[in-house]
Amino acid sequence: MNSIEEFNYYNRLVDLYKDLLTDIQKNIVVNYYQYNLSLTELAEELKITRSAVSYNLELAKKNLNNYEEKLQLAKKYTYLVDLLDKNGVNEELKQQIMEELF
Length: 102
Description:
Blueprint: H1 3-17, H2 23-34, H3 39-46, H4 50-71, H5 73-86, H6 91-101
Helix pairs in contact: 1-2, 1-4, 2-4, 3-4
């Protein structure tokens, strides 16, 4: 998986599982993956060291991977999107279905 694919993968996991993380982990992954803040920017904003941000980011990624391994919501999401695309469901209806389910 290249860095863009990895970034997109974790962005999807953050969408699905962020509420299962601690507050600090949630804050870090949301700002890192969804708002594209750097570790240094996060450290300044949270008033903690860059290494503390890095540690919590890695811990959060580990937790996100564990949740996905057990629940497989991202895998199911991807499968469903592919199935809807394959069957020619229009974008508006597809979006509505995915919002209802996830």
